[in-house]
Design goal:
heterodimer; A: 120 residues; 83% helix; B: 281 residues; alpha+beta; Phosphorylase Kinase, domain 1; Transferase(Phosphotransferase), domain 1; 2 domains; five-stranded antiparallel beta sheet; three-stranded antiparallel beta sheet; 9 helices
Chain lengths: 120, 281
């Protein structure tokens, strides 16, 4: 279960950071917390999926792929919602870095899983 | 007056060397090697129908076999039996290891980390013996066997005083545990330089070898565990005691150890920057 907790916490933190940096793109304002919160929840769910995958799968590539693909899917779902003020959609802003966050969470969890296996 | 040829003398010498195993349950098969303190033969244990390494000692004491029998460790060749020949010489039967000597085996190992993991296994066996008051005194690649399944066994424990082997022998006359540390350092040196590994070996590893093979025993690692800990730290990408780091070394080691994570974070920053440039609000 440590792998799941590790992936969830890492996902939540990186997601929040990604949300804050995305908010910077739009300009600081009332959206900051909403964006950071949404991004954090999105990456938390990705972290959960990655952590569960790491429990059952040893292949590093599969764990990373699950993180990246899920993060892209969630980022797409978020990006598909238009900005309520401008009506614009920010695919590149959200999916570009969102996918990378999923990749980082996947890689870090796979690495953590590998180290735990070597230590035991 | 007739002269005896060298060939005949050699044949007589070999005949005299062949032990008479009458009254034992062993049958000689072939001569394997001449180790410290005696000759090692491959023999058949007729009672158990298995092959054993039979060491016939040049001396008459049974002390070596008795001490070795107490060293029960996966990295030390186990002694099965001890006995005495009709001529008074002592022999003991050990497990026969079918494998390669380290000096032969090493050419098939490409990476320095794999070679160092073998050294760690040797260290475990030697540290175990030291904890029981036994010093090897003649550690060298020729005395280490690597089995077909990767098992590493230290052989030829010269419990009695032996001369040692130039290149692996500590310079001091008293041979204690630190003399074995010296030999282990020399073995690492052999493993990283003795064969063309064809790659750069970092300063920390050089420092480990230098510390282990210091002329002054007091400047060496205090024991084999300390040497093993430094090797393990090197393999894990951690700082080693033998090589104090500058901040530059620490940074380089951190980047080397976490290079993919660093690349990912940099990639994130680059993507974020590109988005800002091309799709900025």
């Amino acid at each position: 279960m440590k792998k799941v907790a590790y992936a969830v916490i890492l996902g939540a933190i990186l997601g929040a950071l990604d949300g804050f940096s995305a908010a910077y793109e739009f300009g600081f304002g009332t959206k900051v917390l909403t964006l950071a919160g949404l991004s954090s929840i999105k990456s938390l769910v990705v972290g959960l999926a990655v952590g569960i995958t790491a429990v059952y799968v040893r292949n590093k590539g599969v764990i990373i792929a699950v993180g990246t693909i899920l993060a892209l899917v969630f980022a797409y779902l978020v990006a598909a919602q238009p900005d309520p003020d401008t009506g614009e959609k920010y695919y590149a802003h959200i999916m570009g870095t969102g996918g990378l966050v999923g990749l980082i969470v996947g890689y870090a969890t796979a690495k953590y899983s590998e180290e735990r296996k070597m230590a035991s | 007056m007739s002269w005896i040829s060298d060939k005949k003398i050699e044949r007589l010498r070999q005949a005299a060397e062949v032990p008479d195993l009458t009254g034992t349950h062993y049958r000689l098969l072939e001569r394997v090697a001449h180790g410290g303190m005696g000759v090692v033969w491959l023999a058949l244990d007729e009672k158990l129908d298995r092959r054993v390494a039979l060491k016939v000692l040049d001396v008459t004491g049974e002390e070596e076999a008795r001490i070795l029998a107490k060293l029960e460790h996966p990295g030390i060749v186990p002694v099965h039996d001890v006995g005495r020949l009709a001529d008074g010489r002592v022999f003991y039967a050990m497990k026969y290891i079918e494998g390669d000597r380290l000096d032969h085996h090493v050419s098939g190992i490409a990476g320095v980390p794999e070679r160092l993991r073998i050294v760690l296994r040797i260290c475990e066996a030697v540290a175990f013996a030291h904890a029981r008051g036994v010093v090897h005194r003649d550690l060298k690649p020729e005395n280490i066997m690597v089995g077909p399944f990767g098992e590493v066994l230290v052989m030829d424990w010269g419990v009695a005083e032996v001369a040692g082997t130039p290149g692996y022998m500590a310079p001091e006359s008293t041979r204690d545990a630190r003399a074995d540390v010296y030999s282990l350092g020399a073995i690492i040196g052999f493993l990283i330089d003795g064969r063309p590994v064809g790659r750069h070996v970092g300063k920390p590893l050089r420092a480990i070898v230098e510390k282990a093979t210091a002329e002054d025993p007091a400047a060496r690692y205090k024991d084999v565990q300390a040497l093993a800990a430094d090797i393990a730290a090197y393999l894990d990408g951690l700082p080693v005691a033998a090589h104090p780091e500058t901040w530059l070394d620490s940074t380089a080691r951190f980047l080397q150890r976490h290079r993919l994570a660093v690349i990912l974070v940099l990639a994130y920053a680059v993507v974020r920057l590109l988005i800002h440039i091309f799709f900025g609000a």
